[in-house]
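Throughout our pipeline, every protein is held as a single compact record rather than as scattered files. This encoding replaces a full spatial description with a residue-level series of whole-number codes. The remainder of this section carries one protein's record, kept here as part of the documentation.
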Amino acid sequence: MRARLVVFPVKGRNWCFSRSVDTSSSAAADSASAHTPSGLRELCTKISNNSDPKQSNAELLIDFVSNKMNRAWMGLEKAPEGTFKNKIHGLGLRLLARVKPSEMFLKSITKEVSSVEITYPPSLNARLVRRRLRHVAKRGTIIHRKYFYGSVSLLPLTTAFTVLPLPNIPFFWILFRTYSHWRALQGSEKLLELVSDSSAANVNEGEHEHDKLKDAIPDRFVSSTWVLQPSEQLEGLIQHDDGDDGLSKSTISTICKTFNLNAIDALKYRNSM
């Protein structure tokens, strides 16, 4: 499956890295969720009957926990206004707002992705775009591995809050962060694999800089895991709002609507470091 990645500068050295929402990938995710065990008995049965390596069983367990968390979150979202569950949902939204957009981007690179199409404004250097994508992926493998192990170590401590007559919010939050960092780590490793130097290059013809990059690639690379795709439409949207303060919120929202991006995550890049 090919994923479309959109890259553009938002403010100074801050660039936005986001994946376009694909209906086919959403359908695939729904299909995978449908095959995830709904109960502990079904989970134990699948694990015992699974002939795959331990990695497959670990992913099955993580998908099971993720499915349970998603269902619980949907229940909180549908809670009536003013109820305790509704207040917990509001707290969750405030906590999620603090999650860095790069983490959300890396989590979107799933194991089903076999190649990426990188859309960017032609005013950016093609080599720099790929270099920065590799930097994001490589940095993600370091950061999210460290935070994953840190979150795992905190899980036993948060279980102490189960003695209180209230929902163990710290435990579920740390559990979610553990899952989120694990997914971001997997996405980082996958993205680094796709845009590594060993991959072949496909560069859209037309721009002189892109032609030079294409000519520099040996002919033996005939199948590519990444494609550089300059977009004049994206360039026009950026140039329309080019200023010292970076892109405005309205322009970023327009870009997100045009290229099917998550506007909430894209807007976070304006203030990220």
User: Anything to note?
Assistant: Residues 126-158 form the longest helix (33 residues).
